């Protein structure tokens, strides 16, 4: 704020009041409560009972928790790079017009989660699904993809790749903000498409990509919930039991709210650590560029 | 482009198949005897009409509310500069990063203690924080691009924060409003988890929940399920097509992108 700014400026702060109150009640308070509940035994019926760090010790010995954590990390490791790469490719392809094509790319993103999951459940149906029928028509007989752990994981990754509208739009905007003169210069110097991409486009868009990657990691930890619930129910053999699903099962199906809260906090810390690691890498990369 | 549209097209054609027939043996582009019979069955099996009405009502409350609170908070945030801006914008960004799943349980507990589970309040409440902290950031970034002299001049004439917001700030960021409104609509329309946790009973179904209960009926009649999916998807697609002009715009400087 500039010194001597007119007094009216301070009054603007009040406009943020509803947001701050709601954020405190809906995010701040629940997050703190989750921390508190994590140290208690609570089933939503009787009063919470303090149990210390028991839940965290139990988590350590819960093989399913480690499976769920591993699945979530694996999912992020597969889905995030793929989503970013596809979205970047499409943004570079479509940054010069083609509103129809852009709309087409965005359209799967607006399909409500549950309808989208149901749609894919049908698409991937091994007997009657269009994909199975199409593959059978060309002579491929093996359509039991949802029955193998890697097939199910791959299917869930594939269906999130189609919903990349938000990443796509942000990358489109980032590409359009790059100065055209730079590209004209490259053309004059006769740089090939690949050189231009690796020397100009990629370095200039790297900060945006890094932020999107951080956000996508967080998002990918949540988006697995509905598809895993509707399409694979966590199977086969727990291959798609992701953390949100396991938390949901513990909290709302088995009413182990304390235990689920402990898990929630571990998930939150894992997320924060992953985002921090990414930002740390980005900072190091930037410093090496500037040096 | 074709690849991205393919699943949706297949969904539509699949829903036109008459229900009750054995599944097709091969690939069929348009099913034989295509018609709307599956849609009729969908509305008979679950109270879809009621569910659609509920979802429309929720969206009608949540979208304007989200736009108002997000733009208010965004305007307040845009007034800061220097380290304050970086700190506060960073804090909001952190809030964006908090996974929704991390507060599911205890948010539910809070509403339970308040005796508000089973009402629409827990569903609408997020709109009070702008729908998503991301929308606040979008508005803050848009407002910061406006020349500050505009605000200073209006302030000298004695305009209060609300008048600044309504008659100066908001009219200048229409593309952002279109984008936020569309995204807020998507959030409220697609919301599956919250209604699943908070609502019960036939009268309180929302469109995604109705689709879920249709699925739970164990219907192996794919045309019926797909018809339900189309019904739930259609409003979202229409909203997108209505707003896409504003933010996937062609020319530089016009759309949300061409800044």
UniProtKB/TrEMBL annotation, chain A:
Coiled coil: none annotated. Pfam families: BPD_transp_1. It comes from the Bacteria. Its main location: membrane. One of its GO terms (biological process) is transmembrane transport. Residues 69-278 form the ABC transmembrane type-1 domain. Keywords: Cell membrane, Membrane, Transmembrane, Transmembrane helix, Transport. It is found in: Cell membrane. The chain crosses the membrane at residues 12-39, 73-93, 105-123, 155-174, 262-282. GO terms for cellular component: plasma membrane. It is a multi-pass membrane protein. Belongs to the binding-protein-dependent transport system permease family. PANTHER family: ABC TRANSPORTER PERMEASE PROTEIN, ABC TRANSPORTER PERMEASE PROTEIN YESP-RELATED. This is Sugar ABC transporter permease. The lineage of its organism: Bacteria, Pseudomonadati, Myxococcota, Myxococcia, Myxococcales.
């Amino acid at each position: 704020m500039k010194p001597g700014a007119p007094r009216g400026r301070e009054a603007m702060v009040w406009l943020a009041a509803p947001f701050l109150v709601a954020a405190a009640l809906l995010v701040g308070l629940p997050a703190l409560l989750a921390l508190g509940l994590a140290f208690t035994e609570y089933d939503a019926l009787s009063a919470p009972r303090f149990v210390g760090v028991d839940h965290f010790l139990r988590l350590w010995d819960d093989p399913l928790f480690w499976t769920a954590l591993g699945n979530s990390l694996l999912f992020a490791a597969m889905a995030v790079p793929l989503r970013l790469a596809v979205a970047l490719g499409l943004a570079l392809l479509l940054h010069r017009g083609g509103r129809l094509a852009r709309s087409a790319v965005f359209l799967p993103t607006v399909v409500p989660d549950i309808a989208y999951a149901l749609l894919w459940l049908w698409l991937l149906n091994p007997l009657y699904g269009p994909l199975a029928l199409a593959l059978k028509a060309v002579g491929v007989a093996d359509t039991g993809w949802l029955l193998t752990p890697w097939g199910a994981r791959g299917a869930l990754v594939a269906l999130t790749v189609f919903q990349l509208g938000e990443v796509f739009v942000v990358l489109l905007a980032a590409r359009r903000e790059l100065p055209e003169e730079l590209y004209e210069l490259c053309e004059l110097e006769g740089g090939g498409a690949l050189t231009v991409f690796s020397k100009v486009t990629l370095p200039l868009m790297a900060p945006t990509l890094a932020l999107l990657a951080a956000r996508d990691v967080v998002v990918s930890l949540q988006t697995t919930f509905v598809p895993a619930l509707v399409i694979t129910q966590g199977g086969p053999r727990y291959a798609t039991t992701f953390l949100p699903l396991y938390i949901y099962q513990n909290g709302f199906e088995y009413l182990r709210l304390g235990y689920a809260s402990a898990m929630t906090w571990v998930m939150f810390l894992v997320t924060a650590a992953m985002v921090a690691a990414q930002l740390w890498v980005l900072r190091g990369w930037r410093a090496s560029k500037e040096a | 482009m074709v690849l991205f549209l393919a699943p949706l097209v297949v969904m539509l054609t699949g829903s036109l198949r008459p229900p009750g027939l054995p599944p097709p043996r091969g690939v069929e582009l348009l099913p034989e005897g295509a018609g709307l019979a599956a849609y009729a069955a969908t509305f008979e099996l679950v109270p879809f009409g009621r569910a659609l009405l509920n979802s429309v009502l929720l969206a009608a409350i949540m979208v304007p509310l989200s736009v108002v609170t997000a733009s208010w908070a965004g305007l307040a945030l845009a007034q800061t500069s220097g380290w304050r801006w970086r700190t506060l914008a960073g804090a909001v960004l952190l809030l964006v990063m908090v996974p929704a799943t991390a507060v599911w349980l205890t948010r539910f507990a809070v509403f339970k203690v308040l005796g508000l589970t089973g009402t629409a309040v827990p569903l609408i409440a997020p709109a009070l924080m702008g729908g998503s902290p991301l929308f606040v950031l979008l508005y803050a970034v848009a407002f910061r691009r406006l020349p500050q002299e505009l605000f200073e001049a209006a302030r000298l004439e004695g305009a209060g924060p609300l008048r600044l917001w309504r008659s100066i700030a908001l009219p200048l960021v229409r593309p952002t409003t279109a984008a936020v409104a569309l995204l807020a609509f998507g959030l409220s329309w697609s919301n599956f988890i919250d209604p699943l946790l908070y609502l019960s009973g036939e009268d309180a179904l929302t469109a995604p929940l109705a689709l879920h209960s249709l699925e739970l009926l164990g219907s192996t009649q794919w045309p019926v399920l797909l018809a339900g999916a189309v019904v739930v998807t259609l409003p979202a697609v229409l909203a997108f097509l209505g707003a896409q002009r504003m933010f996937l715009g062609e020319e530089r400087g016009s759309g949300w992108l061409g800044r």
